[in-house]
DNA sequence: GCAAGGTC
């Protein structure tokens, strides 16, 4: 005993020691960020250890947090930790109407590839006192932060959560963030939730509909492997390309005329521009020319010389990298980003997905320039920059998380496009931190008669950044040395004819600029969207110009014929406005979500209603008529059989077996809910009908059952009013028809929630229409009050007044009576069913287990009379519940010594069904327990406990209290 | 098989 006490004291003191230092779990958005932040906050003294994920390390150090020396455990996620997906049959393309996806259940889950990251966080948070979110300080980062919080709170509900807000990855900013820890902003996260859910719903619904429809109608043009996808970013992106193409197609060229004036002297020809530029009236232009020729002398009226600069490029953000790379290197934006990401992971450049185009004053630029001095091509220029002192030309954008793209490590060993992209980033950086080019511009004005002309000359004085930034040209232009009042006879004074030309096709760089301007996608996704619509065949590339493909044209034209603006950026821009309003607390996220769902659902309904327009538009572009022989798509509607009694959220539906040998019943919420009902061998097949049950009013659909022995049906004499026999099938409602369940060997609890409270009375009264809400269970267990029993939408079939039972009206006896021993007519019915369905067995073989359970639970004689009185009071306080037979369950007390002694429980009166339920736990849990544990109590008991000390983790043989 | 958004 003494040893035990000493051990207890030792354990207690150890616990105290472990709590004398606060421990914070910090989580960044990516491993690189965790590494950098840890290194800075620890002054380079953090210790690295492994997490479950090989890509996401753990960095440990100590520092002062909120005035207390604390242990820091720093780890990371890899972007979003959770994803969304439809559940059950809504995941399958041909198992539901796509329109259902606007309201179908969506499951948030951790993808398998991030499971290890989640496990690391779960493990580390167990021993932490606080959680600090260090994700990027943008909208997505806030949402990722809440995903981390969700995972942590599942382990430690009460953990204190803080948000570190930093403007960049520099020491002052990060330290400031740690000393000014704030609360995470749920509104920002909710805006992302809205965007995310909406994108999934509309993307999946439209994509499935378009793909299935058009593939079916145009099998020669759209292959079975093709997708005709719709996305709220990809289709407006397609829209830009189509719009430019249409502008070009619709362009009508016009002739114009202008007056050309040149002056050649000393082998130099200077060209003058006419102040009127051009005229579209030839006769007018000719008349003016004649007046000029009549004079035939130009007079210099003004000479103005002024300095002119050509600005060096701004600090580079992602969009600039994509645009410049696409224009100058002629590499697609997607490939540029792929290469940039590779360079980043190799440490050659900073993070390439950034919206920041200004360098923080805290970022030391000189060392970055110094490291480039060794390069043979630009090393000399880097030295010049050092002489000048690095002076970046900054923009005004910041994502508050990443610096502009810049080189972080010197290399001269890259090859191919990797070398070219690295070179672009280095040259851009050196140019940005150097000096503008300087020149001197001369503008000369002249008149010929009454007409004004001008000419410009340029002398480049200092090339500066142009020496390193080979992607830009600045050409000088010589001009004669004029003085005011000089005159000259024009070398050429003539009429010049020209034609207006259409705009050019969009380049990828133009498209990215348009996407950015209209808020389509993010800097990190522009290239991805362009790549996607290329993959879909919506657009193609001709001489570096983007052109719509025939499918892309057909889609956009189809939408326009239906007066839908799906291919224009306004819909998405409207969402962005709403998301901003959510972030600022001006709009409720759920309101926005519902509004947006309705907007897109209306579009969807228009498409399905007027789909002939889409068919025609696409058909016209393909040059074929829709395939008239195409069979209509067979999309199986999901028929609700009844509400799943296990999850009580989704419905029981019919599913086909994988080997296509038949069907089974399963919860629609699979895999979240794995409730399934496997049919026995007396059923050959079961299908659901469009027809709904008129008896239960639950919107349940009837089942069409084919038995393995057809002759049995011929012997069925009477069926309930809502059921019938048809072409060798039995058609009924499995929810209402208890006898059918019996025949199919489906447990009542597999289709109905058992244990519904029927009365708080001590007398086991069986009610036909129990009204749960008006008879709340009287129970001292607060868990019960926190988890109220869900009322059934229609409980009348739970009533066991068999004389009035609907099930019984046409001779299908109620389950509660069929196996009872006090009803002769039941016995008769039972006999007839035994004949009809030889495989059906009664509960006769339960007798042994019944007696065993009776012995276990009702060990009468052990308790005193006082005990029994107390037990009786306890039982009287319990509400009455229904068992699987739809009859009032017995209320008993465990008398046997053991962990459950004195606990109240319910069981079937007579052990006709295997119903068991503890009286002191919430009812839904009990139902599950009954299924899992057979005789009951399995899950409630939790981990197996030692029979001696009642602690988990060991048993009687190795109980530490004995060993000592 | 679907989106868009993170990330490796």
TrEMBL record:
InterPro entries: Topo_IA, Topo_IA_2, Topo_IA_AS, Topo_IA_cen, Topo_IA_cen_sub1, Topo_IA_cen_sub2, Topo_IA_cen_sub3, Topo_IA_core_domain. Residues 393-412, 766-871 are annotated as: Disordered. The keyword Isomerase applies. GO terms for cellular component: nucleus; RecQ family helicase-topoisomerase III complex. Its EC number is 5.6.2.1. Releases the supercoiling and torsional tension of DNA introduced during the DNA replication and transcription by transiently cleaving and rejoining one strand of the DNA duplex. Introduces a single-strand break via transesterification at a target site in duplex DNA. The scissile phosphodiester is attacked by the catalytic tyrosine of the enzyme, resulting in the formation of a DNA-(5'-phosphotyrosyl)-enzyme intermediate and the expulsion of a 3'-OH DNA strand. The free DNA strand than undergoes passage around the unbroken strand thus removing DNA supercoils. Introduces a single-strand break via transesterification at a target site in duplex DNA. Releases the supercoiling and torsional tension of DNA introduced during the DNA replication and transcription by transiently cleaving and rejoining one strand of the DNA duplex. The scissile phosphodiester is attacked by the catalytic tyrosine of the enzyme, resulting in the formation of a DNA-(5'-phosphotyrosyl)-enzyme intermediate and the expulsion of a 3'-OH DNA strand. This is DNA topoisomerase. It comes from Chironomus riparius. The lineage of its organism: Eukaryota, Metazoa, Ecdysozoa, Arthropoda, Hexapoda.
